[in-house]
Amino acid sequence: MQKHYDVDGHDFSIAGEASSNFKSYLKKLGIAPEVIRRVAIAMYEAEINTIIHGGGGICDAEVSKDRITITFRDHGPGIKDIDLAMQEGYSTASDQIREMGFGAGMGLPNIKKYTDGMNIDSKVGVGTTVELIINI
Question: CATH says 2-135 is which class?
Fold first, then answer.
C-alpha cells in the first residue's frame, strides 16, 4: 500500500501535514502504536527538513508486510557534509527558521534514532533523497 504527499516548502502552517495524515492511515491499518510513534517522529523530522532545507519536495510512503519505507526527495541545495549534518546540534538553518522554533540540529539524528534504517543520497546543487525504514 502506497501513499504520496507533496511537501510545500513555502507554507509552514501545513508543516507536518503529511506525517499526521500517514499516522492516521497507519492507525486505520492496525499497525502497533509503538511503530506508529516511531514513524510519526521520524517522518515529521524528515518532512520539516524537506521544507526548511530542501524548499519542499515529495514524500512516498509504502507499507509492506514487514516494513514501512518512507522516501523524501527535494531539489534543494544538497548536503555538503552528511557526517557533519548527522551530528546532534549541527544546523544550517537560518536565524529566521530558528526564531520559528526549528533548526536545532536534531532532525537527522532523530530520524536515525527512530528508524531501523536510514539512507541519504545528496548531491550539492541537485538535491537530497532520504529513505526511512521502520520494521513492523
Answer: alpha beta
